Amino acid sequence: MPAWTAFAAVSLSVLLVLLLLARASESAVTTKQSSAEHPTVAAHEHDQPPYSTTDVESDSDMNQPHADGGESAVATDNGRLGQQTEQGVSTGLLLANVAFSQGLFAGILIIALWLTNVPVSAIGADLTVTTADAVGLGVVTGLVLYILNELGASHAKQWGLTGSEALRGALTPDGVAGWLVLLFVVLPIIAGFEELLFRGILIGALHVGFDVPLWLLAIGSSVAFGVGHGAQGRVGMVVTGTLGLVLAWLFIVTNSLFAVIIAHYIVNALEFVIHEGIGWEPFETEP
């Protein structure tokens, strides 16, 4: 017999830790953005003068790392911080950290699922009932979500509302190998873990185990999903929470964890490839 209470306790504990880490990431990204926007303040924080002894730095000097291992307070040409954080953490190390931490959380949830005898069908992971139509709907939903996300971001910018892109920029690799790791290792782990927790467990398992109404779980999980992406700023949290509602709908109508993982992955992958890889801003008009 499934130990629903024990499984829920473990899952909610993972959610709490995740939200606390998200809050810490939000603070770190906010501090980094503030340093980039106010180089004089950032220079004092590093106990260094804001300018060289000649009072003028060349373009190349402005993007060179400081002697203490921190990055120059001036952002790179594309508006995001360079390939090292102020603490000297490389993009590769950051990607490894994300993959390890989210993979670890996913592993904890899977082990808890096994130890508590919760059926995989409760989280929508039963391959015997996952149809090609469900997977196809996941692909279509992912593409539609990406387009709507871009349209919404474009209109939001016209109103002066923008989300933070610092975290996405920090995770963007330089070389081909880094992109392969990002697209085929890190992003699948992120999509898999987040959908397992926010849709498979917070909607599917809690509904099956405790008979909580699906609509209430969909709203609650989407709010938590938005809060968990606080590093993207307030606008990003609202957008992510809205995307979470659509993914909740997809999970409910398909009863397939794989469908929402695919949709989630498509949105994330397209954002990285189009914005950071190609450097294209869809639907953006000249002021």
TrEMBL record:
Protein name (record): CPBP family intramembrane metalloprotease
The CAAX prenyl protease 2/Lysostaphin resistance protein A-like domain, residue ranges: 179-270
Keywords: Hydrolase, Membrane, Metalloprotease, Protease, Transmembrane, Transmembrane helix
GO biological process: CAAX-box protein maturation
Region span, Disordered: 31-77
GO molecular function terms attached to this record: endopeptidase activity; metallopeptidase activity
Superkingdom assignment: Archaea
InterPro entries with a match to the protein in the record: CAAX_protease, Rce1/LyrA-like_dom
Transmembrane regions listed in the UniProt entry: 94-115, 127-148, 176-193, 200-225, 245-267
Organism: Natronocalculus amylovorans
Pfam family of the protein (one): Rce1-like
Signal sequence region: none
